[in-house]
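The data layer described in this paper is built around a simple, fixed record for each protein. We quote a single record here, exactly as it is kept in our systems:
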Amino acid sequence: MSSLARPDAFDWTLVRSFLLVLEAGSLTAAARRHGLHQPTLSRHVAELEAQLGAPLFERTGRGVRATPVALAMADAARQMRSASQAVAHAVAAQRESLTGTVRLATSEVAAAYLLPEVLVALQQAEPGIQVELVVSNSLSNLLAREADIAVRMLRPSQSSLVARQLAELPIVPCAHRDYLARHGTPRVPEELPRHRLIGFDQDETILRGFARMGLPLGREAFALRCDNQLAASALLAAGAGIGFAARYVLPLLPGVVPLLPQLAIPPMPCWLAVHRELRGSALVRRVWEHLADGIPRVLAAREAATLA
């Protein structure tokens, strides 16, 4: 049985050189176009001709002319090239795909209302990456290397962290339409103390904010007090009173609407942080890049939905 009867006898390197010469029209042009050595191409063509037992090119003064045998096998050779390229692309894609686990630390509100959409998109783009979501309001887990990346609502100050600000998150007073239907809608900030307010228990952030507005209030002014922001969001959604929330959360709380647009509450920054030593990891860097791109995109969509 001749080698021609066995497809596995073909050397793709020889076929590739044959195609380069066929498409360039000469050995010299093929070598120049592809950065190869002309003697190498000539040797490959001669070896393939020996395997086939037939000439592939006739030499002319301007280069080479394909023989009927060369023309007959040209399409099959191009299919071999396409198959070879497909294999190379598949191998490259497999090498570039990332696998492993990244621990992501963030706050309760971001874990519940901001990151789910972003992480779904990450799963679709990088199915080999697993994420462990660490829900905590402290940076200590990142500094202690208990997490790889953190999404935080304050600027990290530690020199061992690399940080990037992603957004400024507007904070708004808000209430459910059912509550407003029962108790009326405040038109000016001074009317807020007359309403049932939802605020923090031990955290004095809201009290300090009222004091800066010239409305000093005590904690007893808040009919419902809770330091857990997810519980506070649930109270808002149930129509328990007027509270304060990041505006991007409102599209996820049906019926809750922003109030008092003239009230200037300082926005809350959103920062992405990673330990400096981990930034060089391809796995961590891929998740970092996805978060840096996805979080602003989700926030922009939520803002549009709130203002619609």
In short: Confidence is low (pLDDT under 50) at residues 1-5. Residues 171-258 form a domain with the D-Maltodextrin-Binding Protein; domain 2 fold (CATH 3.40.190.10). The longest helix spans residues 68-96. The CA atoms of residues 72 and 304 lie 61 Å apart.
